[in-house]
Design a protein that fits this description.
This protein is of the alpha/beta class and 403 residues long. It has helices at 14-29, 47-55, 66-70, 84-96, 111-124, 138-148, 187-190, 192-203, 334-351, 359-378; strands at residues 3-10, 35-43, 61-63, 77-80, 100-103, 128-130, 155-164, 206-214, 219-221, 239-241, 247-254, 259-265, 273-281, 284-289, 295-300, 310-313, 382-383. Bound molecules: nicotinamide-adenine-dinucleotide.
């Protein structure tokens, strides 16, 4: 029988509820997991949401003060799904209290806050898992294996996109996401970490960048009293200023010599969530789009068959696919990726070995984001460097442990 582990959750918006569902489903999909989650307490500033944690989501207790979660003696692991401005205070307090953390990206408002969280986690010696769950898509794991095995030859080109429309409506309310005090960075913090982590996880560290950013929708309606989270529109509201970027794009140089580009937008009409990549090597290529989660486009120039991409469908044997579906062609979904991440989090606590992105990986990612942000200001190429200013230092992020 698996040992019970007390779970506390901070914030019950989209991500907090998703973390909760992931814990609830974990043993259905991973009966062999060494730890069995017990939902002890959850916090949300909105009392109705906090009460709902106990009434509907299965927590034994609820609170409107996140400190009650972090300080609870029966909580051993804390899910932090709060707005960005709370990442650092909650994560640092949790680590110092000896709690393991499953923290949503971007882990603070700006890279400096991510580095502070990294130091607190290291000093406390607790485990950390970061919400970079596109890594856990089975065909993405398969793509990573193909690249690592050298099947595509030398990797020469990389293109990464996260083109979204969640902020394309000018009537989309001016929530915490659009303010420096709430979110910090715009898309550079909100979605660029997914693109950067994906690229570095697939083909290796980014060495330098040349970036640009733009805010296309400069004012939005203020949030009405009592509403503050999620995405919603307000008609004829009083307008306030958007304080961070809608768009960021960059040219990339990888340490292994590959060259690439990356584009992120939250106001891009057309694609809804085009989180995608294309990797080209000297002997083949592959590409993937989140909106076709279970399909990899693969082209091997190995002399057999027609030239061009073919579709490879997710199947047992790729990543954790078999934990969710019995055969190729039966689709996994978005929420499943969080179940896989929850399992990796608890297993890392059980045996001290990271299987998902950890704080080291998000620190590495935010160094690249920091270089992009600096480049937007200077207009030139910027090296990825560690917080002390040295270049070429990849930090512990490069040394990922693998399952
Ligand atoms: N991994 C991913 O792909 C992904 C996707 C979406 C969001 N996120 C991240 O998850 C985090 C939350 O995003 P979301 O979309 O769930 O936001 P959301 O706006 O839907 O929810 C935020 C929640 O925080 C609560 N809250 C506000 N102040 C609080 C306080 N002082 N104490 C406790 N709770 C408080 C709100 O009431 C709300 O329930 C963000 O950091 C975001 O970057 C990650």
């Amino acid at each position: 029988m698996a040992r019970e582990i007390g779970i506390g959750t901070v914030s019950l918006g989209w991500m907090g509820q998703l973390h909760t569902r992931a814990y609830r489903r974990l043993l259905d999909h991973y009966p062999g997991c060494g730890l069995r989650p017990r939902l002890v307490i959850a916090a949300d500033a909105v009392e109705e949401r906090a009460r709902d944690a106990a009434d509907r989501l299965g927590y034994e207790g609820w609170t409107t003060d996140w400190r009650d979660v972090v300080g609870h003696p029966e909580v051993e692991a804390v899910s932090i799904a709060a707005p960005n401005y709370l990442h650092k205070p909650v994560a640092v307090a949790a680590a110092r209290a000896g709690k393991h953390i499953w923290l949503e990206k971007p882990c603070g408002r700006v890279p400096a806050e991510t580095y502070d969280i990294g130091r607190a986690v290291e000093e406390a010696g607790v485990r950390s898992t970061i919400g970079l769950m596109y890594r856990h898509v089975p065909v993405v794991e398969y793509a990573r294996e193909i690249i690592a095995a050298g099947d595509l030859g030398e990797i020469t080109h990389y293109r990464g996109y996260f083109l979204a429309d969640y902020a394309a409506d000018p009537n989309g309310a001016l929530t915490w996401r659009y303010k420096r005090s709430g979110a910090g960075l715009g898309v550079l913090g909100d979605i660029m970490p997914h693109s950067v982590d994906m690229a570095q996880n697939l083909i290796g560290p980014i060495e330098s960048v040349s970036a640009q950013k733009e805010t296309f929708i400069r004012t939005r309606p203020e949030v009405p009293e009592g509403m503050g989270t999620g995405h919603f529109t307000v008609e004829d509201g009083e307008l306030g200023t958007v304080e961070n970027e809608d768009y960021a794009g960059a040219l990339l140089r990888f340490e292994n010599g590959a060259r690439g580009t990356m584009e992120n937008s939250r106001t891009c009409v057309g694609p809804h969530v085009r989180m995608s990549f294309e990797v080209n090597g000297t002997r083949g290529a592959l590409s993937w789009d989140f909106q076709r989660l279970n399909e990899l486009q693969l082209y091997r120039t190995d002399g057999t068959g027609d030239r061009g991409y073919r579709t490879v469908r997710a199947a047992p044997g790729m990543g954790d696919f078999a934990n969710f579906q019995p055969g190729a062609g039966i689709s996994m979904g978005y929420d499943d990726l969080k179940v896989a991440e929850a399992e990796r989090f608890l297993s890392s606590i059980a045996d001290g070995r990271d299987r998902a992105a950890s704080i080291h990986d998000i620190v590495s990612t935010m160094r690249v984001v920091d270089a992009m942000d600096r480049s937007c200001d200077t207009g030139g190429w910027e090296a990825v460097r560690d917080p002390t200013g040295a270049t070429g230092e990849r930090g512990v992020g490069a040394a990922r442990e693998r399952a």
